[in-house]
Design goal:
disordered N terminus; about 240 residues; two-stranded antiparallel sheet; mainly alpha
């Protein structure tokens, strides 16, 4: 009986030892590695946090941002030269507004209104003198008409009225041409102005003039002095 009890106790104790060994060999290292991994990740996050907090924008970052903006503009974003051109042809000055060159709009409308006013005045004067010329010419050439009405313009002949009429017509046509040229130029200015928005206008653009000494050569043994012109086009 005592032998059976000892065997049962020994068998149970063996199972306890095997379970303890499994926990020590398998479970405990796994838990240890998990804790160690969590600790390493926590330490890396703590190290990265101050570094990220201390990051500040530098001049290089500003230059890169400006370069990115120029690249974005070159790839079809604002301002689009074609849009500025079409807008100015539809409505004078609209291209300048699109380019945000608002100070050019009064110049555009000042020129076009002035030319349009002069064209309209010369056209009205041409119409008035043309009617006088026709009446005077009929009065001079048609005896029946001359006997039925008085002289419409006794102080001038039909030839002089015709000269004045031609002068007003020429002035009207000339200023109409100037109006058309101004209309086209304001559209072209909007187109070119939109293109100029894409150009590099940073502080790196500079023109410098420096004194320069030419060293003696085989053909010219004397030392010569001059000036060197340097144009910095930036990045």
């Amino acid at each position: 009986m005592l032998y059976v009890i000892c065997v049962v106790v020994s068998h149970s104790f063996s199972r306890i030892l095997l379970a303890s060994a499994f926990i020590c060999i398998v479970v405990q290292p796994t838990l240890g590695l998990s804790c160690l991994s969590a600790q390493v990740v926590s330490e890396k996050q703590q190290e990265a946090a101050p570094v990220q907090a201390n990051i500040k924008p530098t001049a290089t970052d500003s230059i890169k941002a400006a370069a990115s903006l120029r690249q974005a503009l070159k790839h079809g974003k604002w301002p689009n030269p074609q849009v500025a051109l079409v807008a100015s042809f539809i409505i004078p000055g609209a291209g300048q507004v699109y380019n945000r060159s608002y100070w050019k709009v009064p110049i555009v409308y000042g020129y076009l209104i002035t030319m349009g006013t002069v064209v309209l005045w010369n056209h009205n004067e041409f119409a008035r003198t043309d009617a006088l010329f026709k009446d005077k010419y009929r009065y001079e050439t048609d005896s029946t008409y001359r006997n039925s009405v008085s002289d419409p313009f006794p102080n001038a002949s039909s030839a002089s009225l015709n000269n004045v009429r031609i002068q007003y017509r020429a002035q009207r046509d000339n200023f109409a041409f100037f109006f058309l040229v101004g209309y086209i130029l304001q559209a072209m200015e909007a187109y070119v102005g939109a293109h100029l928005k894409h150009f590099n206008v940073s502080d790196d653009l500079a023109l410098s003039v420096q004194p320069y000494i030419l060293p003696p050569t085989a053909n010219n043994p004397n030392v010569s002095s001059g000036a060197r012109l340097t144009l910095h086009l930036g990045r």
